[in-house]
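ok so for the tutorial part 2 we go from a plain amino acid sequence to predicted structure tokens. step 1 is just haveing the sequence, like this:
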Amino acid sequence: MVCAIILYAMERKDAKERIEKLKKAINKYRHAYHVLDKSLISDEALDALKKELFDLEQRFPDLITPDSPTQRVAGEPLKEFKKVHHEKPMISLNDAFSEEDMDAWLKRLGNYLGKELGPEPAEGFYCEHKIDGLAIELVYENGIFVQGSTRGDGLVGEDITQNLKTVEAIPLKLEGSPSTTATAGQASSGTKSLFSERSRRVTIPKHLVVRGEVFLNKKEFERINKELAKAGAKTFANPRNLAAGTVRQLDPKITASRKLDSFEYAIVSDVGQRTHEEEHKFLHSWGFKTNPRNKLASSVKGVLDFHKEVNKHREKIPYEIDGIVVIVNDNKTFETGGVIGKAPRGAVAYKFSPKEATTIVEDIKVQVGRTGVLTPVAVLKPVQVGGITITHATLHNYDEIQRLGIKIGDTVIVRRAGDVIPQINKVLKELRTGKEKEFHMPKKCLVDDSGVVKDGVAYRCSNKNCGARQREFLYHFAAAFGMDGVGPKIIDRFLDEGLISDAADLFTLRKGDVEALERFGEKSAENIVNEIEQRKKIPIERFIYALGILHVGEETARLLAQKTLNINPKINSPKDILNIFEHLTLEQLQEIPDVGPAVAQSIYEYFKDKPHRDLIKKLDDVGVVLETAGVKPKSQKLHGKTFVLTGTLEKMPRDEAKEKIRSLGGDISESVSKKTDYVVTGAEPGSKYEKAKKLGVKVLAEEDFLRLLTK
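step 2 — the prediction. this is what the tokens look like for a chain of 711 residues:
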């Protein structure tokens, strides 16, 4: 019995020593990977170390400590979260959206302080990314993480300690012990430190409170949403909502399954910090993960430049941000500024131009397009969205108006991302006053008073020769031919002055014809005529697209171009095109990928129509020449395979992906059908992904798609 006790004691002593070494090693590798972005050992090797530690702790449970890596996921699910009173209020920030707003912020702060800060205050401004996440507070006792909480109402939050323990970026134990010191050293790369002349050392206090942000990166957000969708569960609209829902899971094991990340950015405890930049230095030296993209700016100009630079590369940043946080770097000035309402005077959130905004629908007008389709357009009260002033947004068709339930006078949410056409996402019906008016599609064409007929979801002018169609067709034709200098206003002028009556007339214009017009000088006339002349040579697929055939977009035009080349590889003139399509039957047209009955009928009728045939002949007569090099594939590897792309691809732009498919002999379609071979999905796939699953069409993730291209 005594021998057994002695043997156990010896084993326990060895186990304790081994456990301490394992904890130290695991924390070292964890810190390198999650904080420093360095992988010192493989994931498999790290998992093996964690498994060994877990086994030893199971054998000697009394050796388990709160800072052990095995305690990141621990305990049974909670019944509810306890309330936590913050030592100091967790306040929010006021917003700024322009340089004028930033000037106003500095003036307000200067007025309160009784002195003008000037464009280059002594300690400068500290600039941070404003991450779209969830604010948290962390408490450490003797260097050990003991409590984590949410912001709540600013005074009282919720205890989410167990969940925050699962976040690898948050240290369970600070580097060293409470006696360890941190040095305020040099500033981040490329920025001269404003306090480098007073490098000093600060001891970790026994009681330490810090604040930061917990968030999900874009890839993890997409992964989780895909899993939720596959399971038939509710998906999340944005990473912030998902991060908030994740840290508030009563079962920490669920939180652990979602790879949350975290940056810490402020020290609540008094450790003698003189500037906000120093706080970041101390936090980093103690083992906290701080954002390396943050930057010290010595002047207001530096702040504005940082804002522009971050906004420029915003899409490449791995997490969502909606602006930057600008803080008066000198802590004494910051504290003196105090708080107004629930926001500090010494800091501001300098937001990017919003992707969404609210405005009022002042009217709904109807435009008649080049194919005679009547498109409702919302006339909006001017609003800034995505960096531009928006006054119009397309409503697509009457079905879309009914789906949204939109009325004239409604308050709506308008969205614009990147270069995407502004769209109305939602109607805020709770803001209605009762004065809003219903909209109805007109029964007569607004241009030639012909009857309007319903064609699927579209409303169309019944007159094939509608004047609006001709005008819109000319706009389309010039754009398809790449006549950038011949826009709608110039075409309108040419029509009004009688210089042109159809598309072929553009190629007959002479410098003197244009120069004679009011407000057209010699140089502008010369530029216009030269540009038109240079556009006589056009790729065959662009020529077919330029004809404005109903239902024939750019992708279908490319497929039709390939069909013509299969029939006549030496094709080089508009008449060659006419000779081919005049003799194709409906059945032969439907054999072309992505050409269904409706599209085939439209193509068939177009080339049977005498005015259309006359136009093609006239284009041939004025010297339009077709080029075919871009249509011929370099390889037949994907011959006979039709692809549909949906969502945002990360490894290559969508246009590049399409060109790659075509170069290998594959076809592109804009819609999913039983004829589709593959649907390639990127981030945020739309309804095409759902239709592919419904039809049983094979779906390829971007990685699988790239492997298919290269194998």
